[in-house]
Predict the structure of HP domain-containing protein.
Amino acid sequence: SIIYYKPPSVRIIIITTILLESYNQSYNQSPHLRRSLPNMAHSMSTEPAKIYPYHLLLITNYRLPADVDRLNLERHLSDTEFEAVFQLNRVEFYRLPQWRRNDLKRRARLF
């Protein structure tokens, strides 16, 4: 007798679909998860970000303001604080490669 097994790719798709469905159900039921995820709409907008003091934006602060873009915390610094923290102005900072900006943000505890 011949036993037919589903190919591994089909099994992976089925398992992935089941896991995604269960994740989506738990995600939709928990307002805390949605609040903790980064808001991508702010990073894509061209309007200036709301300014906050440096001490409120540190990654050690678990209660960031609701309208803060968690992926680009440096956008919410004033120009004087930005230059004091990074020792660069904004133009010089954004001309750096992404890995270097991330390194500077890590050192400033904004990443």
Summary: The helical segments are 8-29, 31-36, 40-44, 54-57, 79-86, 90-95, 98-107.
